[in-house]
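Hey, sorry to bother you again with one of my protein questions. I've been staring at a protein lately and its backbone has me curious. I owe you a coffee for this, so here goes:
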Amino acid sequence: MLILGARGHAVEILQCLPQLAAANELVFFDDVTPDLEPLLFGQFPVLRSMEQVVALFQRDPAFVLGLGGGRLRSQLAQKFSALGGNLTSVIAASAHVGAYDVTLGSGLNIMHNALVSNATRLGEGTLVNAGAAVHHNVLVGQYCEISPGARILGGCQLHDFVLVGANATVLPRLTIGEGARIGAGAVVIQDVPAGATVVGVPGRIVRQATAIE
């Protein structure tokens, strides 16, 4: 299995795949970070070229998104799928995912101690980070990022490419528009329009999207 990225979030993904790690069945990819060692932690190969990726996909097409940032994750998912890869989800063993009426898209990262409750939907490529909680009847779009400790309370809807910062809370039955950003620790008490940025307690909009965005 190929993990896109070889630093930051990719290193945390490694913690979610202990069996594959023990069997030396994990490979990383990073073509932007200079001076990387050829073996991550002295064990896992780091590929640097697309030719290497294509050769790997002929043996094992599974790949995982190991980077944050919804739009970057989306671009990489499309790029590596076009090379013959199979976008694959990672769900940590300690994550709590509901057993009833849960719809999970492909390419998810559901990290350690995250909660995804019953009657929820997570769109393709979404990241639910460590200790985050997605409560009942929440709909999450594609390539959203829910940061560590964030809480999305019941009945909310997050459109595509939403970022919810660490330890932020979105109160029940709110709608967060596409590409909106919720600052760390914010408490969102009203709907947020597409492209807006919200910070503070209670949350206030400090930036609106422009027509160009």
